[in-house]
Amino acid sequence: MAEMIAVSLSAKVAGALSRPVAIKLCSLAGIPSGIRAAAQDLELLRAFLRFVDTRHGGGDALADAWVDQVRDVAFELEDVADEYTFLSGHTSLRRRCANVAAWLTLSRRLRVARERLRELSATKEQYGIRPAAQASISAAAGEGEDPVAVIGRRLAERSHFVEEDEIVGFAAHTRLLMKWLTGDADPQRMRLLVCGMGGVGKTTLVTNVYKKVAASSHFDCHAWVTVSKSFTTEDLLRRIAKEFHRDVLAGMPWDVDKMNYRSLVEALRGHLSNKKYLLVLDDVWDARAWYEIREAFADDGTGSRIIITTRSQEVASLASSDNIIRLEPLSEQEAWSLFCKTTFKEDADQECPNQLKHLATKILERCYGLPLAIISVGNLLALKERTLFAWKNVHDSLVWYGSSDHGIGQVSSILNLSIDDLPHHLKICLMYCNIYPEDFLLKRKILIRKWIAEGLIEEKVQGTMEEVADDYLNQLVQRSLLHVVLHNEFGRAKLCRIHDLIRELIVHRSTKERLFVVSKRTVTLEPSRKARHVVLDQCTSDYLPVLKTASLRSFQAFRSDFDVSLLSGFRLLTMLNLWLIQIHKLPSTVANLVNLRYLGIRSTLIEELPRELGQLQNLQTLDAKGVFEEKGIGEIGKIRKTRWAISI
Fold it and tell me: Which segments constitute the Disease resistance R13L4/SHOC-2-like LRR domain (predicted)?
């Protein structure tokens, strides 16, 4: 998320500097130009920050320490930009002009932050902290490949050796896929798609069916290749050509390693002419992979079939909707069956001992129905003593991120691929979803309004911010990172859910980078720690610490005790969401939160809004559903920027 700091700051600076300021003092102090210049300096570091974002603590302590310091400076620059907005946002000209000391202090803070940023830029060059370090990491994995790509390829290849009795939960999908391959007499070449999130079992399902069909004489020839993210067209065609000749005694008739694109396409077309072939393209991330090789696979009316596995619903659109299989996590019963088959594989009955069933159930709950996670945990437990002590240690130490155990660590590696593949604007929107409690249903309208209020949505010429945010949400759904639970009458997503294991990963990332602190029942925020976004879920007043409110940008409380007097200290807050909080009155001091863009008081006991609320000229959304009908809503008309006032 380091890169996203630079991106979001640039957007925030653009918004802050577009505001008219009634006095020229800030300009004389050089604040607008200084903020703009600092944002440009930070922008120059984005290439390196993008590299760091994909490493997840890859062992380079020097780079990690440097990024931590860049993050601190970026936070300070964001504070300066928000303080600028705060000071210039007062409706009273007299208050703007009277705060000379604050403007001068702001100017000094800006100079110090810019100087620190220049020092860090020089330090990066001095100590040779460069993205080129990635090459050495990749080289260690062998043949210059990315280590995560190596893990993915090995898992895919291992699926060829999984016995059928080890596979759980795919019986209906297997029958359907077999029907499409061997029972459908349609002579046209057909594309079949299997899609779902990483680790859900796409490759295992398809490979199991592929082995059965390849062993028969239903197809004249067959090939199975992994595509992955970092493919090249010529290399992909070469590997496909070699796979089609894997079982040919005479071997390859051409020297494919010396052939260019045109020669490869012509050779494959000639080899497959008038043949009924089966091709599996595993782990396709981009529809471009098919479009760049499709000329090699002519449709001769022989009944050929092409199976594609993908995490992307956009790629899945390559096939007819009738030819798509969408895999979901396993049911509880299926998950238990797979767990026992893996953990007790060497036992005749493959049953879990009674004394371990309670712990086994708790461990299995942490796998969230994901086959890859279940198998990884099962393999780990198979090596442990079958004692309560040993299994409790596994349960208590089970984390999906940064694990030293290879099997457990590869789960996060596979899932992190989906997160790392996101462009910055989608990644920060996904990260924001960690504010919601576990198993929480995300309402589309509320989520996109929060994204807008937090400044995560970029203005675009071709659409409103709401339309852009809606498109971002749809892209996350297409990438299998958000799952649609309910559609509205127009076919659009109405309710979404994020898979619990994906949520664990983004919560870990966000907490590590000090952006979000999410507390459930017991507050985990240390009083001395600064945080940008705080979420309290079912927390009682006994655990509420003294918050470092100066750095806070969003505060959200779900079913928690909350002292409204704290609001006076949330100086630069842009998001305040009090959901199911037992408060009867919103204090008038909320009007001092000049930067506030989103105010949520849904399902509270508030009966009337304070008259001063009309002073919040930046407020975009008031979510007061379930609070009152008409009483107190009149002041909202004074807020020019309010997009939505929900009072149902």
Answer: 552-626
